[in-house]
Amino acid sequence: MSDHPLCPLCGRAIPPEARQSQHHLTPRLKGGKGGPTVLLHQICHNEIHATLTEAELARDFNTVEALRAHPRLQKFIAWVAKRPPGFHSKTPGRRRKR
Q1: What does the pLDDT profile of the chain (98 residues) look like in tens digits?
Q2: Rounded to whole angstroms, how far apart are CA atoms 18 and 7?
Q3: Is the CB of residue 77 less than 8 Å from the CB of residue 10?
Q4: Domain-by-domain residue ranges, the chain?
Q5: At what angle do helices 71-80 and 42-51 cross, to 10 degrees?
Q6: How far apart (Å, rounded) are the C-alpha atoms in residues 40 and 94?
Q7: H or E element that contains 48
Q8: What angle do CA 13, 14, 18 make, to 5 degrees?
Q9: 3-state SS of 25-44?
Q10: Three-state SS letters, 72-91
């Protein structure tokens, strides 16, 4: 077992060399500045923002549990779970419509 933090979205370890970032559970633009954040793999963070609008994140997807329950994110999690912890690539699929 490693001492690396676990990504709350995909459940994989986040080693120091992995691209990573903090995700505001409530977007900063929607009142989340100073609110709770979670450390994610950068690819997981990118997928969240490619899937959901800031308004959707603030209104319906402001917990890790809600994010993990989203159908597109469930497919992404199943896909990325097979990749090594340091894996990164461009976000697959199309970005959401604005």
Answers
A1: 568 999 999 999 999 999 999 999 999 999 999 999 999 999 999 999 999 999 999 999 999 999 999 999 999 999 999 999 999 987 655 555 54
A2: 11
A3: yes
A4: 1-89
A5: 160
A6: 21
A7: helix 42-51
A8: 135
A9: CCCHHHCCCCCCEEEEEHHH
A10: HHHHHHHHHCCCCCCCCCCC
